[in-house]
Design brief:
single chain; alpha/beta; Rossmann fold; OB fold (Dihydrolipoamide Acetyltransferase, E2P); 5-stranded parallel β-sheet; 5-stranded antiparallel β-sheet; 31% helix
Length: 238
């Protein structure tokens, strides 16, 4: 579910965005949207909880304008997608100082709205944090996938390597590899899965995680190298 907040003192303008969100959800499969409405920036920010994926914020509002509300917002939630809504495009320049994703100029057209919405959803997907549960000797640990550098086998255990240490689980690598291969991990050989974002250098024979060198098995060289090149070209490799 996508959680959206609309902050606008003009209820008619807000209702147009509500209608657009409903239409967008109907036209895009698996896109369920929940909307909350606030009629001024102060009401929105005073009890703010970081539960929203996207915020549409009017700039000109009484009590607290959108720019000041956005400054307060960024103190508690630096990651939420913020889109300013304004009657004058010149105000959009202020969005840079609060890391606004984009802006919409009133009256908002559905075509323009869809463009910004798709852009926001792409950012939401990039920011989405996925976790895995590890039944380690330290107890049940909830590990963010992006914190895991690599996973390998050690006798009857699999070992999750992170920058903060290792976590062991009595599982088979094949049991869990599907979860990771669809989340920017790559299988280099029968005993090792690596987070592609953790790779600092690679060639057709091996990958490097800093000073650590991990060989790519002969049968998987072509597939792995192609996947890594694709990952780089799509701009995810950093």
């Amino acid at each position: 579910m996508i959680k959206v907040a609309i902050v606008d003192d003009n209820r008619k303008d807000a209702d147009i965005l509500v209608q657009y969100l409903k239409k967008f959800g109907e036209q895009n499969e698996h896109c369920e949207i929940k909307v909350d409405y606030f009629d001024n920036g102060l009401k929105f920010i005073v009890d703010y909880k970081a539960v929203y994926d996207i915020i549409f914020m009017d700039i000109e509002m009484p009590k607290m304008d959108g720019l000041n509300a956005a400054r307060r917002l960024r103190e508690v939630d630096p990651n939420v997608c913020l889109i300013f809504v304004t009657v004058m495009g010149k105000f959009a320049i202020y969005g840079y100082e609060v890391d606004a994703l984009d802006f919409l100029v009133k009256p908002v057209t559905y075509l323009n709205f869809c463009d910004k919405m798709q852009k926001a959803l792409r950012k939401c997907n990039r920011n989405k944090v996925s976790y895995t549960l590890v039944a380690s000797e330290k107890g049940i640990v909830k590990l963010p996938l992006h914190d895991i550098l690599l996973i390998d086998k050690d006798f009857h255990d699999i070992v999750y390597h992170t920058a903060d240490g290792e976590y062991r689980d009595r599982k088979n690598l094949k049991e869990i590899e599907g979860e990771f291969l669809k989340n920017n991990f790559i299988k280099l050989n029968r005993g090792c899965i690596v987070n592609m974002r953790a790779i600092t250098r690679f060639n057709k024979d091996c990958v490097y995680l800093g000073d650590k060198i991990i060989p790519i098995s002969r049968v998987m060289k072509k597939e792995c190298y192609g996947a890594l090149i694709k990952f780089v070209r799509e701009g995810e490799y950093k």
